[in-house]
Inverse folding.
């Protein structure tokens, strides 16, 4: 079997879990793939694209998820909706995909957390955008909660999602006012609050947590944030961002090779990836 080359491209791109995760996924699927890291700045694309086209496929990270689009022949429906690409499959057609949404959905499903009912999403950045869109497409009743300084971004996000999905059931509030909003079926943290090295904080109080049924935290370092720990201590279903990180990589391999994976193997990879991450910090 001939060696096929894959990569993750970004700028700057230092410590990344992508080689570790994708190497394991190739091994689990019995596929022959070499996965490397390439630093490609946005302005370098015109002179780098021919080399990228020689790869069997590649992943795209910040700040290139929009920059890559004009250099592709076709976009998947989700990539078109999000105007964002994080996975490219090369061939007779160079096609762009975004696997973040499916990674999120698979992470929830693997942990028996339904995406329905009343959802509170804390934050309004890039990853929050994924959560708001997917919750809207799933027909959830959504509350987007932010800091006072982020209300303008919050309103722009809500407006964009409403226009593109036709969903109107989206409320907004400040993080400090979440307790007044009532209870939620799912609380999602899309902020960096609780991320390494400041791990001893949560974006909301424990009182808010006790009024939720499930919790998802997009942070993957540490594997279990204080928010996730508090949710589990209160008997809630909860999961951290490493699950989404690994599952979105799984979707990339489904796109590249049609690979199929055992959930137990992926759960083990999530655990092993967390241990590997600790070596980098």
């Amino acid at each position: 079997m001939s060696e096929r080359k894959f990569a993750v491209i970004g700028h700057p791109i230092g410590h990344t879990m992508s080689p570790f995760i994708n190497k394991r996924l190739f091994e689990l699927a019995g596929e022959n793939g070499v996965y490397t890291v390439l630093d490609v700045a946005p302005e370098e694309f015109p002179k780098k694209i021919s080399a990228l086209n020689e790869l069997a496929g590649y992943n795209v990270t910040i700040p290139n998820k929009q920059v890559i689009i004009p250099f592709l022949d076709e976009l998947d429906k989700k990539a078109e909706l999000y105007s964002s690409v994080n996975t490219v499959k090369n061939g007779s057609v160079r096609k762009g995909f975004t696997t973040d949404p499916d990674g999120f959905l698979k992470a929830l499903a693997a942990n028996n957390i339904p995406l329905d009912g009343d959802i509170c999403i804390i934050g309004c950045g890039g990853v929050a955008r994924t959560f708001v869109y997917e919750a809207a497409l799933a027909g959830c009743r959504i509350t987007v909660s932010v800091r006072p300084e982020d209300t303008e971004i919050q309103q722009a996000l809500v407006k964009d999602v409403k226009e593109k999905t036709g969903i109107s059931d989206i409320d907004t509030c400040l993080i400090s006012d979440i307790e007044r909003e009532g209870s939620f079926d799912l609380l999602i943290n899309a902020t960096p609050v609780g991320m390494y090295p400041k791990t001893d904080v949560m974006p909301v109080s424990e009182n808010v947590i006790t009024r939720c049924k499930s919790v998802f935290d997009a942070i993957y370092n540490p594997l279990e944030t204080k928010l996730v720990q508090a949710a589990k201590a209160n008997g809630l279903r909860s999961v951290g961002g490493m699950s989404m990180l690994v599952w979105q990589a799984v979707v990339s391999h489904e796109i590249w090779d049609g690979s199929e994976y055992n959930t137990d193997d992926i759960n083990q990879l999530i655990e092993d990836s967390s241990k590997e991450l600790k070596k980098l910090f």
